[in-house]
């Protein structure tokens, strides 16, 4: 973890003594990422298809309510599990027990969703499944921080982000193929995540900690840990705020671009799916290039803030272009530009978050708090955006995206306040 004011010479080839063989850890993390990202990207799609098959006339309302409750609970549950994993003294390590335990609970709950036709049972079971899935994934992602030296994290985060981008398409095809069987639809993505995690769970040397080496198990400190004092840890506070602002901008585009195609560009409803698929397909090569290259370059150059600043500016410009587009072609260009900034940002921002963690022993909890920045944005935007969209005669998506662009640019102003990080 970096200290404010400290500027060590950057050596891309240097390996600290606590990371004797990072290549093995990196390989294990990336193998697990294949299935875990498909799992994360598929579960929401699987639920939407399951709800549509059981309650076709009420699918929109039911799906929205279930996912909203799940998103809200994740704000509290993920940092809680992260804090508990930080305090775990199992002989199997701190992270592996939580990865296995959370994913098994997720699998059982998802099976209930696949077998039930009662909306209340499906809703409760899905909320349990998605919350435990995200908690298990968070425990996994901490390994990329604890088990990989700082001058390798950018590359690893970039490749993880690349898998995340590609897994969206893979998850769509997977769930589409399984839509006829509710049980398989809901459980196969989780089983795939467990399968690709087996090498990591068996071969990764998860450090075993003694009670004296972990934070004390105190409910006051555990729940109080959801708040990291920005006065004591200003780098953490400014990084969290910048991430939250960009998260609002990203959520505004990702949540409402389909509705903009319908209401803003007058795309017929029966063509929206194919147009959205075309956007995703066209952005895949861009994601491959910029997730990979951004991580590699930030490691080689030892610079993080310039990439984050450039990414935020690119996304702001794309939001403005998208909001003023009058044809699908123009919006496609805006979408591609936005994906450039988003891929660059999500890669380097994770490395920046890892660099400003206050205490390595609290990495699980603190990375969970950083996750709140994006999860909170995904909850806040759908709650506030309708007020903006319905202003001035309605369908005011340009105003929503202009606000998102301003928020993204505000994160740029914050970057110089993060000290000791290049």
From TrEMBL:
One Pfam family linked to the record: MFS_1
Residue intervals passing through the bilayer: 26-46, 66-85, 97-115, 121-143, 155-176, 182-204, 240-262, 277-298, 307-326, 332-357, 369-393, 399-418
Membrane topology of the entry: Multi-pass membrane protein
Domain of life: Bacteria
Domain Major facilitator superfamily (MFS) profile: 28-422
Locations listed in the record: Cell membrane
Keywords, in A-Z order: Membrane, Transmembrane, Transmembrane helix
Keyword Transmembrane helix in annotation: yes
Broad class of the protein's primary localization: membrane
PANTHER family documented for this protein: MAJOR FACILITATOR SUPERFAMILY (MFS) PROFILE DOMAIN-CONTAINING PROTEIN, PTHR23528
Protein's recorded name: MFS transporter
């Amino acid at each position: 973890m970096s200290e404010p004011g400290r500027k060590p010479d950057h050596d891309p080839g240097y390996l600290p003594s606590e990371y004797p063989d990072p290549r093995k850890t990196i390989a294990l993390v990336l193998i697990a990422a294949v299935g875990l990202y498909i799992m994360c990207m598929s579960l929401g799609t699987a639920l939407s298809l399951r709800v549509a098959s059981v309650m076709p006339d009420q699918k929109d309302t039911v799906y929205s309510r279930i996912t909203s409750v799940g998103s809200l609970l994740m704000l509290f549950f993920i940092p809680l599990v992260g804090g508990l994993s930080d305090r775990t003294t199992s002989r199997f390590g701190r992270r592996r027990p939580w990865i296995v335990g959370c994913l098994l609970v997720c699998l059982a709950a998802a099976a209930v969703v696949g077998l039930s036709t009662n909306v209340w049972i499906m809703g409760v079971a899905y909320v349990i499944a998605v919350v435990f899935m995200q908690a298990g994934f968070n425990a996994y992602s901490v390994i990329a921080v604890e088990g990989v030296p700082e001058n390798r994290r950018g590359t690893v985060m970039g490749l993880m982000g690349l898998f995340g981008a590609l897994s969206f398409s893979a998850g769509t095809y997977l769930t589409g193929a399984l839509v006829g069987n509710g049980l398989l639809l809901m459980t196969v993505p989780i089983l795939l995540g467990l399968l690709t995690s087996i090498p990591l769970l068996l071969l990764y040397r998860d450090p075993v900690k003694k009670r004296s080496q972990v934070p004390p198990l105190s409910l006051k400190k555990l729940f109080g840990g959801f708040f990291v004092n920005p006065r004591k840890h200003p780098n953490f506070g400014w990084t969290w705020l910048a991430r939250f602002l960009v998260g609002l901008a990203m959520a505004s585009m990702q949540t409402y671009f389909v509705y903009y195609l319908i209401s803003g560009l007058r795309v017929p409803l029966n063509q929206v799916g194919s147009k959205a698929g075309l956007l995703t397909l066209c952005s895949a090569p861009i994601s491959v290039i910029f997730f990979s290259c951004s991580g590699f370059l930030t490691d080689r150059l030892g610079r993080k803030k310039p990439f984050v600043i450039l990414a935020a500016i690119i996304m702001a410009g794309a939001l403005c272009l998208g909001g003023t587009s009058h044809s699908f072609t123009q919006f496609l260009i805006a979408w591609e530009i936005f994906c450039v900034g988003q891929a660059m940002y999500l890669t380097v921002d994770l490395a920046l978050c890892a660099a400003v963690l206050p205490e390595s022993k609290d990495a699980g909890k603190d990375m969970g708090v950083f996750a709140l920045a994006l999860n909170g944005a995904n909850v806040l935007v759908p709650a506030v955006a309708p007020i903006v969209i319905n202003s001035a005669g309605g369908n005011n998506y340009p105003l929503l995206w202009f606000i998102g662009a301003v928020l993204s640019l505000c994160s740029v102003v914050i970057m110089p306040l993060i000290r000791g990080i290049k």
